[in-house]
Structure formats: structure tokens, C-alpha cells
Amino acid sequence: MPLNLPDRLPAIELLKQENIFVIDASRATRQDIRPLRIVILNLMPLKITTETDLIRLLSNTPLQVEIQFMKIKSHTSKNTPVEHMKAFYTDFEELRHQKFDGMIITGAPVEQMDFEEVTYWPELIEIFNWARTHVTSTLYICWAAQAGLYHHYGIPKYPLEKKMFGIFPHRVLQPLHPIFRGFDDTFCVPHSRHTEVRRADILKVPELTLLSESEEAGVYMVMARGGREFFVTGHSEYSPLTLDTEYRRDLGKGLPIEMPRNYYIDNQPEKGVQVSWRAHANLLFSNWLNYFVYQETPFDIEEIR
Prior knowledge:
Layout: E1 3-5, H1 11-17, E2 22-24, H2 25-30, E3 36-41, H3 47-58, E4 65-71, H4 82-88, E5 89-91, H5 92-95, E6 100-105, H6 121-134, E7 135-141, H7 143-153, E8 158-172, E9 186-196, H8 199-203, E10 208-214, E11 218-224, E12 229-232, H9 242-252, H10 278-294
Parallel strand pairs: 1-2, 3-4, 3-6, 4-5, 6-7, 7-12
Antiparallel strand pairs: 8-9, 8-10, 10-11, 11-12
């Protein structure tokens, strides 16, 4: 929550330079408060798991948040009960005339296909375009980040020789950027993907800002439109056992899968997971909600353009 300080207190400007959210008394007396409206387009197959992961992080803030789940009409989930989808998800067509303070678009298990080969691609790019005029800030995750960068900025994706699978250290490229408030110089992020976007392609596009990368995992976070779009290639939202579940699932299917790197204690699955990314994940979502949704969105949500 913001600090409410006396008008013209010298500390206000100093704290603002440190990305501490402060308001003076004059602004505080005029400030209206309403819940933030966040819409989540959940493209992951295990929707209930993903819902839980995201809500856990979105709830780690004193801001009041209303969650709406969106689904696309051109795709039917095979791994989530129909009753759950009917009860908690709304078609894009029914939401297209509404506006939201923030939006999260998840990854999807289609990354090895060309974007145009994905059956719901036409509806998805319609949603991408809609978000630009109906949402204050959109957070694209994993495959959605690749898809958003491709659609909006022509950034290609490339196949990897082997799956990027595990927990990898990342470095902050702009330490004073508000999205990194409270971050250490290096922080860990889970990755689970077969494709990548490349640094050289990002740097060719002046509208894009590379904010974070990893020596092993490559590009991690890219920003556009002054924070109205964030593209995050990893899975900061993953719970501690998600990679373990994926690993054991693929082993059980006889698929060629290596043990997730930097994940198990002493690289021995029987010893359990060494969790090293949760603090960063909470900071990422809290900073996004605070600096790029709450502070930027208008009180009258219909004024979003």
C-alpha cells in the first residue's frame, strides 16, 4: 500500500527515486479506491493447477483484486471438467466489451507448432489486439510471451536442441526499474520449454526493452509500451512440485527427458526439491500489480484506451 506523507516533505522525492510508492496528503484526500479487475486467459491444460498458482501470487498484496477467467471459444479443454469451465470461465465474445485493469495470458502446450498452425490462433490474436485498448497492463507468460512478441513485433521463435528444463539464475539489467523493486542482483526462475526468443532479435526492435536475461536460459523479461506489456519467458508462478510432476510424467511415458537442472537437493530426486524462486515470484506479481496496474489504471475503468 502507498505511504501517505505530508505535502512537500523532502523525503517524498527521495523515496520516489527508490520506487517507494508515496502520495502526499493532498492527493490522498482526493483518492478514490475500487477493486482492480484482472482477467486471466488460461491456456494451460491443467487449468485448476494454473489458477491456483496465479491466484496464490495475486493474493500476496493488500490491494483488492477481482479475478475473471476468460476462455476462447475455438478450443475445448480436454484436461479440465466441463462443469468447472462452465462455472468459472467466460468466452472472450462475452467479455470483449468490458475493460480490465490487468490481464495475464498463460503458456500453452503448443510451442513446437508454428503459431499459425495453432487452431485457435485467429481468436488469440484478436484477444491480443483487444487487450491493447481494453487493458491497462498485460502480462504474457512463456508461450504466450513468444506469441505476443511474434504477433506485435515480428520476433521469431527458435527450436532448442533439448528442452530448457529446470531452475536457472537470471540477472537484472535495469536495477532501478520498478518491476525489480526488492529484487537481488541475481534471482532464480523455473523454465520448461522447447523453444526460445533471442536477444539479438529483441535488440533490433526499438519499441522493446530487454529487462532481464539468463546466461543459460536466455531472454527472460521484455517490456513494451511503457509497461503496458510484459513478456516473461519463464514460469515464475510454478509451485514447488510442478517440474517434478512434469519430469515423472515424461519418464512414465518413456519420453526423452533430462532431470530438471538446479532443482532437486544434491541433484537427487529422492531428497526433494530445493525451492529458490518463490520470493522473486511474489515480488514480480506484487510489483506488476502495484506499479503497472494500480498506479497506472484510471479510477473510471471505461477511460482505459
